[in-house]
């Protein structure tokens, strides 16, 4: 039971890190595109 609880608790940081990486990739892609087109992101 302890191993399952430990795995459950440790799973969330991995999921959050994956979502953060996906958001950062999209943002970096948008920044590069905007820079190429000569416009501001915001």
From TrEMBL:
Keywords, sorted A to Z: Membrane, Transmembrane, Transmembrane helix
InterPro entries cross-referenced by the UniProt entry: Trnsprt_adja_ssu-like
Membrane-spanning parts: 6-28
Protein name, UniProt field: Uncharacterized protein
Source organism (scientific name): Brachybacterium ginsengisoli
